[in-house]
Amino acid sequence: MSGFELKKAAQSAKEPFAISAVAKAKPNGSSACEPGEVLSSRFSSLSLISERGDVGFYRARDLRATEGGGLISLRVFRGHDDSRRLELFRIEGFAAAKLSHRNIVRSGPPEEIQGIHLSTAERREDVETLRNLLDRQGWLELRLALGIVHQIADALDYAHALGVLHLRIHPENILI
What we know:
Elements: H1 35-40, E1 43-52, E2 55-62, E3 71-77, H2 83-97, E4 111-113, E5 116-122, H3 130-137, H4 142-161
Antiparallel strand pairs: 1-2, 2-3, 3-5, 4-5
């Protein structure tokens, strides 16, 4: 998944996800803290949104946040044994963090907390994915569809001007 993708809005996942299952333990067998312990020291109310390959997406509250109630999306890399994919995860995270545009979700740079690689992004509960909107309505009025396309094009133009390419534009990654 591209680091600056417009994050997929929460689906019907209401059931809390076990924090200890968020990431694998370090492959070298070190005696580091369990992932759940590490993440729960900074994030609360962790619940699974979706999984794609080596990355899990979670709804959470950042306990260090001072504004907006700390509601975030958490992107956690779970393939600790694949250094190539980890490097891609980090590159995508840094690309996302440098983007600041009204039509692109704000993201923080990638972080590592005791061997767990993650990045954060802003999250708002008053949005839905374009996929959810299409599923609910079946089709869009021309004026609404053109407005959405214009905003997507504006965001892509901004990102491309900074040398960032988005490779997965689809309704699940577009927030309305």
